[in-house]
Structure formats: structure tokens, C-alpha cells
Amino acid sequence: MKVVKWLDEHMEEFLLVILLVVIACVSLLQVIIRKIPWIPSLTWAEEFCRFCWIWSVFLSLPYTIRMGNMLRVGVLLDMLPNAVRKTVNILVDIVTTACMGLLAYHSVAVVGGIQASGEASPAMLWPMWIVYSVMLIGFVLAVLRGLQQMYIHVTHFNEKELTTIEQTMRDAAEEAALAKGGEE
């Protein structure tokens, strides 16, 4: 159960950090090798980094849903009574999940069309359907995270929810306590 809990809390974070580290390392390697005259430059590095950036965008979708960081106007929600705020959150979860589901459904056709075309990337010669499949993975994970958030909001409907300002103050206090504990 520890593995499942860790995956629930950190899977997207872990993948995004790995992609960022890989992008940084490959870009740095490309810059260093470019300055060494007897080693040919990495012709695939720019394309690979571009693919990693695209993958990070689609993998950040489920992460933002899980963390509750989707674009919204939190101040307006904070002004509403708790029950109305919870209802709006559930409606937002429904709309978000439906949109991500629709995008996932259509991305199946896109990936299938690219696979049928046999298109390959110019520098690395990877099949492009593999590159585009992260779109489908990201949307499916976003649907799962949307359903998870909907479940959380429904099961905790009667609990008092912190406003954006209260949550920000609590997070700042926790960070300050952690920083103070690290100094000792």
C-alpha cells in the first residue's frame, strides 16, 4: 500500500522532475560537445529536448488537477458559503473530467492516424505515434485525477474547507517551521 500511496501523491511530480533533469543534462551536454572540435555535435539533442518539454506539458495536466491548481478565480470561491463552494468545486471537477475525457477520446484517433501514417521524427527516427502517445496518457491520467478529485470533494462535502488565504497562510507557516527545524 505504501507504493500505491506514493504513486498517488508523487507520480506526476517524479516524472516531471526526471524530464526536467534529462532536459537540463542533454542541453548541457549539447553545449559542451558543440565546443569540442573533434566530437560531432548531437544532432538529436534539440529534438529530444523538445519532445521532453511536450511530454512534461501533458504530464503536468493530471498533476495540476490533483493539486487543485487548475486555472480558476479562488477569491470568488472564497466569498461563497462553504456548501456553495463545495458544489462549485464538484461542478468544476465534472466539467474538467468531461473535457479531459473528450480530449482523450479524440487523441486515440490522432495517435492511431499518426501510427497508420508511419511518420518518424527527423533526427532520432522515432515513430511519431510514440511521441504523440503521451498526449493520450496525459489526458487519461487527467480523467483519473479528475474522478479522484470529484470523489474527494463529494466524500468531504460536509467538512469545512480552508479559503485560499487561509491555505496560503498555513502553507507559509509549515514552510517556516520546516526551515526553522533545518537551521537547528
From TrEMBL:
- Asked if Transmembrane helix is a keyword of the record, the answer is yes
Q: What is this protein called?
A: TRAP dicarboxylate transporter
Pfam families attached to this UniProt entry: DctQ (PF04290)
Q: Where in the cell is it found?
A: Cell inner membrane
Tripartite ATP-independent periplasmic transporters DctQ component domain span: 23-151
One Gene Ontology molecular-function label: transmembrane transporter activity
Domain of life assignment: Bacteria
Question: Key word Transmembrane helix present in the record?
Answer: yes
Record-stated family? Belongs to the TRAP transporter small permease family.
InterPro entries with a match to the protein in the record: DctQ (IPR055348), TRAP_DctQ (IPR007387)
Membrane spanning stretches: 14-33, 53-69, 90-114, 126-144
